[in-house]
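Hi L., both proteins are below.
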Amino acid sequence: MQLDHYSNQFNKRTFSIKVIAENVTNAPNIGSLFRTADAFGVEELVFCGSQITLGRKMMKTSRATEKSVKHRTQLDIQKVISEVKHEGYFIVALEITSESKSLTEFNFPRNKPIALIIGDENFGVSEHILKVCDAIIHIDMYGQNSSMNVVQATSISLYEITKQLS
């Protein structure tokens, strides 16, 4: 028998994880990030950039999770990174680079909160942000494409992070 929202056996839990989105501006992606953040018990979702719109198109995809997920918008990502660094967060970027480590082989710290930086739909996490991160992770890919949708990648990453922290 399929379970509905009210009869599932999931335990509600919040992890010490902030997702910081750098210039993620596509309304359906923003809405889907709310759903993903809700599903994985993210403590806060921070949208950074100048073109962030939390409007009707976003709400269509979010299915009201924007009401339950703590979130904010901030023009300057540098300010957010300074803030989380000061608060003792382990800062990890999700990006494919020559230095990045495979998500499945990376051990996330259990004794520190985690800030997961995700990047622009077209250009990823900017170079100057990658330089201030404690680690850079990537998802191993086996097809011809070298990237995937930012929400899909975030979901896969949060699955692995919360699995390790559980």
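That was the first. Here is the second:
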Amino acid sequence: MLRSDRYARILEHASARGSVDVRELPGLLDVSSATVRRDLEHLSGQHLLRRTRGGG
């Protein structure tokens, strides 16, 4: 899956559910947890989502 496709899927998932759990995304996207964390860092840096720790 292309990076841009992953970004879109993450944002769609977050929008539909209101939040995402970083532990569920590797299975959804078929990538490693390290890739998910890099993707979330990028999206957060672009102010497309806000990362929280511990679900808060």
